[in-house]
Design a protein that fits this description.
The protein has about 290 residues and is α+β, with helices and mostly antiparallel strands. The chain folds into three domains: about 60 residues, Multidrug-efflux Transporter Regulator, Chain: A, Domain 2 (Orthogonal Bundle), CATH 1.10.1660; about 110 residues, no CATH class; about 80 residues, no CATH class. It has twelve helices and nine strands. β2 and β3 form a beta hairpin.
C-alpha cells in the first residue's frame, strides 16, 4: 500500500472520529492502528491511505472519545477541564479535604484567570452519558498550570509534573520505515523546516530576554527615567507577570492616566513591536512603589 498524502494529527484524528490526543493514545495501545511518522521534534504526519483503510474498521466498534474543538498543537499533550477538575479533587481527597470542586464552577473561573479572549482558544465540548453536548476546555501545558496555580502553587507543581510526563509519552512514537523516495524527500524537507523554525524561535526568545535584562539594568542606573511599560516595571521589581494580568493592569493604568491628564507613551517591545508606557506615578499607584 502506498502512503498517499501525509496528514497532520488533527486531520487524521478527525477522519477517525477522535480528537488529537485520543488518536495518539489509541495508536499507542492498538498496534493495528497506523503509526505516525516523526519528521521533527514536534511534528508528526500520518499516511492518508492507511488512515482511510483503518477508518473503515472502526465504524462498528471504535471506542468513543469526547470530541473537542481545540486550537492547540496537534502533537501537544493537553488536559481537559474535566480531567483537571478530577485531578484537583483527587489531590484534595489525598490531603483529607472533602470539598469537591464542581466542573461548572471551574468553567466559570477559566475566563477570569486566562481572560475571555484567551479562554475561547481552548473551548470545546464533550458528550455526556445522556448524549448531550456540554461545554469544556482543553488546555495545553502553560494554561493547565495557570489554572492549577489559581488554586495553589503546590497543585501547579503537580500539574506541571503530570504534563511533562505526558510530553515524554508523546515524544517517542514508533516510526515506520519510509521506502517511497518522494515521501522521504518531503519528510527530510519538513524536518529541515521545523529545525529552522525552532532555531528562529529560540533566537527570538533569547533576544527578547536580553532586551528585557538590558532595560531593567538601564532603569536601575538611570533614576531620571519616568516612563515604563507594565512588564518593564514588573521586571524592574523582580515581579513575574503573565500577559492576561499585564493587559488588565495596562487598562487600569490607561484609565488613571486619562483621568489625571497624564501622557501615555509608547516604547518598543521585543514581543509585540510597541506597547504603552506609563508615568512612574501612575504605575506606583496601580502596581506599587518602585523598589
Amino acid at each position: 500500500m502506498t502512503l498517499g498524502p501525509l496528514l497532520k494529527t488533527d486531520q487524521a484524528a478527525k477522519r477517525l472520529g477522535f480528537d488529537s490526543n485520543a488518536l495518539l493514545r489509541h495508536a499507542k495501545k492498538h498496534p493495528e492502528c497506523p503509526q505516525p511518522f516523526r519528521i521533527g521534534p514536534r511534528m508528526l504526519r500520518w499516511s492518508a491511505n492507511q488512515i482511510e483503510v483503518y477508518a473503515s474498521t472502526l465504524l462498528s466498534n471504535r471506542k468513543k472519545e469526547p470530541p473537542v474543538n481545540t486550537l492547540t498543537s496537534s502533537s501537544q499533550p493537553t488536559m481537559s477541564s474535566l480531567e483537571l477538575v478530577e485531578f484537583i479533587n483527587a489531590e484534595r481527597e489525598a490531603q483529607g479535604n472533602t470539598t469537591k470542586l464542581r466542573h461548572d464552577d471551574f468553567m466559570r473561573k477559566v475566563p477570569k484567570v486566562l481572560g475571555e479572549t484567551v479562554a475561547r482558544n481552548f473551548s470545546g465540548y464533550y458528550v455526556a452519558e445522556n448524549g448531550k453536548e456540554n461545554p469544556c476546555y482543553r488546555f495545553p501545558k502553560r494554561e493547565a498550570c495557570l489554572m492549577a496555580m489559581s488554586y495553589s502553587y503546590d497543585l501547579q507543581a503537580k500539574v506541571f509534573d503530570k504534563m511533562t510526563a505526558l510530553e515524554q509519552q508523546v515524544a517517542a512514537p514508533v516510526t515506520p520505515a519510509v521506502r517511497d523516495p518522494r515521501t522521504a524527500a518531503l519528510i527530510e524537507a519538513l524536518v529541515r523546516q521545523d529545525a529552522l523554525e525552532q532555531e528562529q524561535q529560540r533566537q527570538a526568545l533569547a533576544v527578547a530576554q536580553m532586551q528585557e535584562s538590558v532595560a531593567v539594568l538601564e532603569a536601575k542606573l538611570d533614576t531620571q527615567t519616568k516612563y515604563f511599560s507594565i512588564m518593564g516595571w514588573c521586571n524592574l521589581q523582580g515581579r513575574k507577570l503573565d500577559e492576561p494580568t499585564a493587559a488588565k493592569l495596562g487598562k487600569q493604568c490607561a484609565q488613571r492616566s486619562r483621568f489625571e491628564g497624564i501622557h501615555i507613551g509608547r516604547v518598543s517591545d521585543a514581543r509585540h513591536g510597541e506597547v504603552n508606557s506609563y508615568h512612574q506615578s501612575v504605575l506606583e499607584a496601580v502596581l506599587g512603589p518602585r523598589k
